[in-house]
Structures are given as structure tokens and as C-alpha cells.
Amino acid sequence: MTNTEAKTTLSVTIDGEVFEARPGELLIEACERAGTYIPRFCYHSRMKPVGMCRMCLVEVDTGRGPALQPACMLPCSDGMTVSTETPGTRKVQAGILEYLLINHPLDCPVCDKGGECPLQDQTVAYGPGESRFVEEKRHYEKPIPINDNVFLDRERCILCDRCTRFADTVAGDKLIHFMDRGNNTQVNTFPDEPFASYFSGNTVQICPVGALTARPYRFKARPWDLDETVSTAWTDSAGARVAVQSSRDKVIRLLGIDSDPVNWGWLSDKERFAFEALNSDDRLTAPLTRVGDHLVPTGWSTALERAVSLLSDADPDRVAVIGGARLTNESQYAWAKLAKGVIGTDNVDSQLADGLDPELVLGLPRATIDEACTPGGTIILCGPDPKEEIGSLYLRLRHAVVHDDARLIELTPTATGLSPVAAHSLHPRPGEVADLARALVEAANGGPAVSAAGVSAEEISSAAVAIDGSVTIIIGRASLAESADCVTDAALQLAALPGSRFLSALRRGNIHGALDSGLAPGLLPGRTTIEAGAARFADAWPSTPASRGLDTAGILAAAADGRIDVLVLLGSDPINDFAGRPLAAAALETVPNVIALDMLVNDSIAMAADVVLAASGATESAGTFTNLEGRISVCRQRVTPPGTARADWMIASEIARRLGFDLGFDSVESIRAEIAAVSVVHSGLDEKALAEALVDGLLIGGSGDIMVPGVVGVSPSAHDAYSLRLVASRSMYDDGVALRNSPSSRGLARSVTLRLNPTDFDKIGVDRGTVVRTESAVGRLLVPVEPDPGVPVGSAVLPWAAPGSPANTLIDPFSTVTDVRVERA
Amino acid sequence: MADPLDYIRGFGVTFKKLFEERLTLQYRGGKGKPGKPDEKREKGLRFHGRHVLNRYEDGMEKCIGCELCAGVCPAKCIYVRGADNDPDNPTSPGERFGYVYQINYLRCIHCDLCVEACPTQAITESKLFEFSFTNRNDAIYTKNELLVDDNGKPRWLPWEDWRDGEDEHTSAWMRATSPAGDHRYEGVVAWSGELGHGVRSPEVGQSDSADESSRPEMATTEVEQ
């Protein structure tokens, strides 16, 4: 054996027991693995150690006699001897705690952390019992809001540097920091600059004292009256694992769970505070039916009867279902079976022209988040801004780039939240990302670099040089004002990079579960097509669709033409979410019958629904969730649904029964069993495997029967010099119905501005704040303009679904790009 | 076989009691007719009766809504919810106050653990024991009923039988044990009882060893080497 091989483990003696530690492992981690907990405040396993609090001092002997050293700063070395329970260690622990409590107020009874506080717990376990200090404690103004949702109580702060480290090194929003010196050192924001971070809630979760508290949880309950279940965050497709905590049958807090392959314990504020919408006073507690212009509450039997009579009277080809990304996998499967198997329509689409071709997402070789974040690898972002759309993914990607030497190459129409750390940011003209991808791939494969899509040859060649190691391409819709085909073509170009794999960045909740459940035209559950899967479903389903149906754009166009009789809105709001508001509005006006399943009355329901069936929300029903990697994780019921609202699969079963067919489901387990039986990819999905993978989830791999689609060959129309090309991109907070009903998120939607490159300002003759008329072929908006050097010349960026100025007013879903005329109003 | 004389001895006890002072009181719960006696026995020093929620002398409520009473309650009969104090018109000192406070007297076992747990002496017990409900909702006393009035005296609820002097000392702390559960502190006022109305003098006699010399020094505990 050579010497290097001998050093794959290090022998460390911990309190007399020999333990094999890993090279480079910190002593505090090795001790924890060995079963010896060392008290700590500042150390957090997902952040670099700083040794601020000195609580983890232990006696370490490396051959020169025992000396007190901080276990969080000390990598293990061979032959190290550690004593964690010597009188010297005990004395220093008691001393540190007495020291921390000189100024820490003893207001534990009114502190939200009281009962789950590391300082409280460790004072009981390691503290001196009595303090010798009788002097007055330091006083600051009691909690000061550092942003809309987080309060800072500086009296309680023990200066552990966790929140400030998180803001700087994890979130990249360096907006809180230590200020002043000595006894007056305190954490604070910069003057007049709030801690405006999408991830501020994490600082509350990791604060080891009650210095940071969150408004939605403030004084709502104490830790001992919380009930808790493991579940999955539902507002985006990352599938971050959460602990749902409730008191008195009401969810009052979500905490991130450290799931190694997914979210590392972090959550975006949207995921963290989204439960408020479920507690909204406007939640549907009973079904509604339309009487005249009003939706009035009714009983389930009346509502179901009306829905069933509408469905049974209609020709299957004239029935369409839009939505389904909100549902659990089980409910999605039940609805797929109802729509495609019982009713017999293939006009089913869970994406609202804001996604990608499902066969592209399912057919291409897929990467996990871990694979995307491989140290030293290359990440090509050909999709949305993860910081705005999929917060947990953003944190993982940022960590890979900043701390693990991954290189990020952006092929996005504008700068993103990751641009500051990206190796190369290439901004193609809207609609031409496929040209850029082709040029990049050619350059990377040794060909000559040529300029493409407005990006210079030098930029492309230097970016091509950076492509090395494992290559992961993140695909999604960077702009909803250009057709999904642009991304399809770009992805197929990038697939030519050797060893490349793809990570989907479709954002909508459980959209990947919906695609796996066949809620898309031409698909059946289990990543199979209606042609390939018909035989397998012959036993379990009464029938399968014979020919491919319409997607959402096709459904709405057909509805506007009067070719759809019954439209089912499965938790969707086409008016606000469909990329093409004029078409959605025309369709909802024309379609004679609309059945909706939802938790809240959204604009489309208020406008057109005839029957609204009250559905239960994410914390109110059991099921599973599929994240963007294809990872299935458990969602558990924590509270009872309001009123008579019920799970979506129960509604599907009930409708099917009244249509004369028994779906055969009496529990979510029975649905899972059928999924595992009929699906080619879900065969490993059994209850035991799910229970064992409670934290990390069960990765479902493979493409099933799905073939990668061919190149569409989009060619955007020529760009005339008088227009700007529109980029409509989502932001974390918008005017969606769920956010409107979350008190903590409601005010966070940014005021809408049209962002232009400053050089375009002179051309149009406007200044910052000038209200302009933005007119496309299908609609117009009045919005103020704002300069943004991150926007390429010739483009105009409008946030999606902003309050009062919906960008989809301007979008024609059937055109490749959207050109807008921008003029002074 | 029993001794036949035992029967006579048994009746002897009965006859003897006929000429002793009677222990029975003519208690009518305050509903006695004029002229008829209505006597109420004085309750023991640590009798656990109906709770009161106390105020400070400036009228602020002592309860801060910390839920420690609800947490410690073995019968789970207390429901508390905290809320933010309005800074301009606070209900209690500090940030938080008891927004909801309810005790279900169908469940309460009057163990007094809530009183022991309370960090502000907000909840104490009176000696009132008259509970009378005709439905379950009435058994749940709310903050309105439990909270003392502006004079710091408990409210006399219509069905309760308050006698003179019974509403004194209801805000005093009635610990069954010494502050740290240490019998050596028995009889020592270790918590300032001066905040409310009616300070009760320290109580002695729980154990024989309650003398000052056996008490350890309080503030100078050294960490043992």
C-alpha cells in the first residue's frame, strides 16, 4: 500500500474512542458522526465556518499537549485526540454561555424562539446555572423590520454571523452586515436599504436565538403546540422539502428540511410563506354554481350533478382540460384517467403555453440537481432566471458556481440573478437563441466561431472554450413572449455537446408530475404516448384516446371558434397565466360551459365558470410531488381542508362514478399502486421505498417510450428598426391569485416597468419614468420605462403578470416573437 | 366470630357524636332565604379554586400570552393565543399580550401548575369553587371573566358566592414548592409579590429544615474544576 492510499481515513480519538474521520472533515462534523454533539451557535453545516461564537471549543491534543481549539475551524488530522467533556471544556462552555448572556435579554416567554432556542437549550445543558452579572443589559429599539417579513431584535443577537454569512455567501444578497464596534456591534441593514432578498426567511430559520423573527409566525404559537409533518413545497418545481407545522388545525409555519439532493434546508420566501393563501378567508369552502352573473355556494351533489350533465352531454372531442400542475401526482393520474380514459378526450394540457414541448423535457437525457452542480462542471442556462422562478435551484446553482468551480454560461435574453457569477453571459436577440446555440456548439466542437443572434464571435469563442467537464443544460422559458419552439431548437442544438444532460426549469408547481401523469396532448401516464401505451392501459382504463389532441393554445383557439363545449379548468387561470390574454379572454367568452376545480376564485373562474368544485390544498391532502429532476417526494396531509373542500382525485372519482365508471380508487395508496402497475418508469414506486426515501425522495429516471422531437426550424420574422422585441419574464412575486391572498407576499410584487437598454432611450425619446404606450399586434399597455443596462439593445423587458399591467395582453401565442412599438403616451 | 359487644361499642360512637359540636355547615351558596343561616367554611391556605388573571397597578395586564401555562397544563384545559401589543395603546408591558385566554373548567383539575409556570404571576387562583354550568360552552371561562377589574379585584360572576374578604390576596403567588423546587427556600419571598393587589406573607411549615443556615449562597456558584 502506498502512503496516499493509507490516508483515505484519519484516526481521531474522540473521548477515548477511536473514530475514522474523512480527510478534510471538520472536527465538529466528525464528532457528530461519531455520536458526540459539540455545542455550537455559529457553525452551520451548509456554510463555511467562521469560528465566531467559541461555543465549540474542545480540548484537542495533536502531540503537543491538550489545548482548547474551536472544533468548527479545525480539520481532522491523523492521531488527533479530542476531549469534549473535560473540566476545562466544561468551564469554557459555561464561561462562553455566561458571557453571551451578559447582554442577551431573558425575555424567553415572549420570544418566538423560546422552546426551540439553541441558546436556551445549550444554557440548560452546558450553562453555569447562575450568572455573576447583575448589571443592566444592553438596550436597543425592540424589533425593527429589516424587510417586509423579517423583524430584527438586536438585543437578542449573539453575533454568530449566520444570517450575514447566509445573505452574502449563499443568497448573494449582501444586504445585512455587522456595524459599529466592540460592545455596540450589531447586525443591521444599510441605511434606507431593506434586506430585500427572496431568501430572507432562511435567516429566521437559522438564527440560533430569537433575534430574527418572521411576521407570518410572529406570536402565532409556541413550539410545544405545533404539530409537524414532512412535505414538499408546492409553489415551484424544485420540490424543496419542508416541515409543515400547524397549531389548532391551521398551518402557521413552514421550515426547510435539509435534503441533500434538493434544497439543502433552504427555501425561497415564496415557498416559505405561500401557506398563507391556504389560510385565506376567501378559500372556497363549498362548491359554487353560477346563477345569473353570480357564483353562489351550493351542495356537492348539486354541483357534481351539473358538472356531470355538462360532461355527459358533450362530444368527447369538444371537451378540453387545462391545468393540473397544482395537483398531486395521484390526483393528476386520476384526472388523466377521467379525461383520457373515461370521457375520452385528448385535449388535455397542464401547461398554459408557458412551458416546453413535453416530449422534449421527457425525451432528452435528464440531469439531477447534483449532476448539474458537479464541481468543475459546466452549466448552460438556456431558460428562465432561476432566482426569480425556482429559488431553491438558484441557491444550488449559485453554490456550484461560487464555491465549487462550476462554470455558468448564460444564453438568456437579458441578465439574470446569476449573471454576476456567470462565466459568460450571452444575450441573444429574442427568438434567436437556437442560432446562438448552434454557433456555440460549432465553436465548442472545434469549428470557427461566428457571430450569431447579436452576440459577437469573440464572446461565443471564449464561452465555447469554457465548456468542459460534465455539461448540464438548463432548459425553460426565459421569455414568454417568444415561442417555446425557440427553446426546443436551441436545446436540440445543445444536445450535440458531448455528454450533455438536461435539467428542466419549467416552474409551475408539480408540472413534471403532470407530464409524467399524461396531462399533455398525446401522452399517457408513465412517460408514454397514446400510440405506444394503448395496449398497456387496455386493462386498467376503459379506453385511450385514438389521436393526439390539442394543446392549450389549440384548445383556446378552438374554444374561441366555438369548437369546444366544455372546458375544465383544473386549477388554472388562463386569463392571467396563458401566454396570450386576448385569445384566452375570447375563448372564455365563447365557450358555453366551464367547470373549474380550485381553492380560490381566480379571474377566469369569476368570468366564465358555471360550476366551481372546491379543492383541497397542498397541506390538506396526501399525495406525492414530482420535482424538476423527476424526483418523487411525499406530501402529507397536515390539516383538514376548509368546509367541504376535498382532494382533486376524490372529485375525479366522483365524477367518473356519476358518468357510470368506477375509477377504482379509494385512497392515494390505491392510485399509487395502479400507477406503479401501468407505468413503465414508476415500477419502483412502492410504499416501502417512498417511506425509506422520506427526506431525499425517489428519483424516477428514464424516458419511457418518449422520443426526442425533431427540430422545428423556427425563423423569427425580420426585426424592423422601429420596434423593440419583447421579453416577458416571470418574477418571484406577481399578481397570481395565491400571492394576492398571502398577506406577507401581497405587497412584494414589483411595480411594473418596461426595462430598456439606456441607448434605446434616446431613440424613442423618453426618460426614466416616462409612461409609454407599448403596442403589439394584439394589444397595448401603458407602462413607465426604466433603464437597465442588462437588457440588450433592441429588446424590451416586461414582467409577467404584474399587478395592473399583464404582459400577456401583448402576446400572440402563435407567433414566434412579439415585436412592440414603444412610444411616448 | 365478632364480639357481640362490638355492636354496642359502635352505637356508643354514634351516641357520643350526638352531643358534640356539628361539623356540617348550613351552606346555601349565597342563595339562602332571609333568616336562614348560610355559612361558608374558610378555605385552607393553599386551596386551589377558580383562576384570576391579574393586572399591574397601572392597569396593564400581566399576561404576556407566552402559553407556558397551557404548555404545562396536564389536563390541557388552557387555551392561549398571543398577539402583538399596539405600541400606542399596549395591553401588557412589552411586545406581546394574551389575546385569547380561556380555561375549560370541565377539564381543569386545579393542580396549580399553571400558577407555578407563569413567569409574570399573571395567573393565580382564588378560593372560589362555585362552578355551575348548564352547557359545555359555559364551562369555558374567557379572559373577560378571569381578568380582574380595575381595582385589581376578581370579578364577582353572577353565579359565584363571594363572601367578604374572599377577594383579598387572590393575586398572591401560591407556590406549593419553593422557587427552584428546593425546600430550603421555603418561607422566603424570592419573587417580588408587590406588583399586584394583596401580598401574602411567606408561608412556612412544609418541612423541618427550613432554616436560613442550610440555604446555599445564591449568586456565586462557581463552576467546579
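qc> Chain B touches chain A at residues 64-68, 70-71, 81-84, 94-96, 119-120, 218-221, 223-225 (CB under 8 Å).
qc> done
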